[in-house]
Design brief:
The protein has a single domain, classed as NADH Oxidase, CATH 3.40.109.10. The chain has 9 helices and 6 strands. A hairpin with a 1-residue loop joins strand 5 and strand 6. The structure holds flavin mononucleotide. Flavin mononucleotide binds next to loops.
Length: about 220
């Protein structure tokens, strides 16, 4: 199939609530995973921790942790977007520096600077560190959703779940560094959904300040 371009995928995407049992071909799933982690992250920390929930037993446990939302049982895979708020202090960070050096993207000087600046910045975040990690995971989830749409699949962002229960299901236990950003079932839509619509731009888009609503041309 020809992939939809980005504007077309954005406009066509709907939150799909029923999925066919059809599996996703392994090559297609891998392509989705690769497009998901092509997302940017603060300092390229890549602090998302993504779990593909696929087995029937894990799907049932995740569904129970998500107010029994049946999309999780129906879809062949649900991506759980977790985030590690201390990823910047962990082994993955050395790999981030190594790759950027090898690719010539970050010269030695930049790596040296980041090795000091990143811990300082992260320490300054305090309790906001979780929020920063979750932002990165949400951006990756958005990449997944648009890539899936472009490649003929459907998705639904899901906020309806109980965080400690989801953490148990994915094996994060009570790790205080791990937060859950969002769940995204992915599969082939069983039923289409209509666009519930969007507010007029002037309701929530502004120029310079809230006092100046954006006025669309049409
Ligand atoms: C962060 C987020 C969380 C959501 N959580 C759920 C959910 O738990 N269950 C559900 O059925 N829909 C969920 N939705 C889907 C929204 O209801 C849907 O996006 C919205 O009604 C707009 O419809 P559209 O996505 O088709 O444009 C969620 C959407 C977002 C962006």
């Amino acid at each position: 199939m020809t992939a939809l371009n980005v504007p077309a995928a954005i406009l066509q995407r709907r939150s799909i609530k029923t999925f066919k049992p059809d599996p996703i071909a392994p090559e297609l799933l891998q392509q989705l995973v690769e497009l998901t982690v092509a997302a940017p992250s603060s300092y390229n920390i890549q602090d998302w921790r993504i779990v593909l929930v696929q087995s029937e037993a894990q799907k049932a446990a995740l569904c129970a942790a998500s107010f029994n939302q049946q999309m999780i049982m129906q879809a062949p895979v649900t991506f759980v977007f977790a985030a590690d708020s201390r990823a910047w202090a962990k082994y993955t960070m050395e790999k981030v520096y190594e790759q950027a050096l090898a690719n010539g993207a970050w010269p030695e000087g930049t790596v040296g600077y980041f090795k000091k600046a990143i811990p300082q910045f992260q320490a300054s975040l305090g309790a906001q560190a979780r929020e920063y990690a979750l932002k990165d995971a949400m951006i990756a989830a958005t990449h997944l959703v648009l890539a899936a749409e472009s490649l003929g699949l459907s998705t639904c962002f899901m906020n309806g779940w109980v965080e400690p229960q989801v953490k148990q299901v994915i094996g994060a236990g009570e790790d205080p560094d791990i937060g859950i950003a969002v769940l995204v079932p992915v599969g082939y839509a069983a039923d289409p959904r209509l666009n519930p619509g969007r507010l007029p731009l002037s309701a929530n888009v502004f120029v310079d300040q809230f006092s100046h609503p954006y006025e669309s041309l049409s």
